[in-house]
Amino acid sequence: MSSPPAIILCQPQLGENIGAAARAMANFGLSDLRLVAPRDGWPNPKAEAMAAGAAELLASARLYGTLHEALADLTLVFATTARERGTPKEILTPAEAAQRLRAAEGERTGILFGNERAGLENDDISLCDAVITIPTAEFTSLNLGQAVLLASYEWFRQGDDTPPSRLEHGPLHRKPTREEMVQLFDHLEGELTASGFLYPPDKRDHMVRAIRATLHRAQLTYQEVQTLRGMIVALSKGKHRVKKD
User: Fold this and answer.
1) Residues above pLDDT 90, as percent of the chain
2) Quick one: 96 exposed, middle or buried, by C-beta within 10 A (0-12, 13-18, 19+)?
3) Distance between alpha carbon 49 and the CA centroid of its chain, in Å?
4) 139 Cβ partners below 8 Å, 6+ apart?
5) CA distance 95 to 210
6) How far apart are CA 226 and CA 184, in angstroms?
């Protein structure tokens, strides 16, 4: 398993953006925050206010006077920029960069971000192995905290095993049993028969199968099954019927 990459902010300007970056890192399992010559000094109360639950991550952030010092112990570093810099570097999407960082087993890695005003200089990029460019529409400028969020999320996503789809947990949100579904079918079909909807008799079986297929496709939860049965009762018995003028 590869270690999480360090996040290096080179000459960041606003404390709020440093705090937002720390919060994004904490969301997605990153903890090594490195600050190179922040403009407003360090520590910064505005960063602490913006970081919310990531205060401990901010407290452990390391401060460096130069970028060389911040990168000294790393063996694989990607620089983030959206602009052409005239430097012959491979350009990666965040997803591709995350895959390579995950594959760098045993290495110490990092992602470098420039400041809010001008981004990274060519000399900064020359210290890195490749460039990450976040695909956008026509407007390419991203807030520093947003850029850290996207890069951190892509790294996390490469190792995340969350299923692409799932039902909300809890006793009311579980899947209904076959017996509970059959009870719903019987209840609904009984009322539809009594109301004369399932007519003529020779079409009844086909109509019943179509209704059941519709309910199956809905992938109802236990709570939804019970709600439907309550609706059937209310409609069949006229519960709480509102009188019209």
Assistant:
1) 77
2) middle
3) 23
4) none
5) 44
6) 8
Confidence of residue 140 (pLDDT cuts 50, 70, 90): confident
- How far apart, in whole angstroms, are the C-alpha atoms of residue 31 and residue 152? 11
* Tokens standing for residue 151: 């890069």
* Residues 178-207: tens digit of each pLDDT: 999 999 999 999 999 999 999 999 999 999
Pairwise CA distance, residues 139 & 2, whole Å? 34
Choose between 195 and 166: higher pLDDT: 195
Buried b (16+ CB within 10 A) or exposed e, 113-123: bbbbeebbeee
In the chain, domain spans:
6-158, 178-237
Give 22: exposed, middle or buried? Use CB within 10 Å, 0-12, 13-18, 19+. Answer: buried
pLDDT in the model for residue 2: 75
Residue in this structure with the two tokens 């995350």, named with its chain if needed: 98
User: d(Cα 30, Cα 226) in Å, to the nearest integer?
Assistant: 43
Residue 86 has pLDDT above 70, yes or no: no
Residues 80, 134: Cα–Cα separation, whole Å: 8
Please list the helix, strand and coil fractions of the chain in percent, rounded to the nearest 5, in that order: 45, 10, 40
Cα–Cα distance, 88 to 46 (Å, whole number): 38
Assess if CATH 6.10.140.1580 describes domain 6-158. no
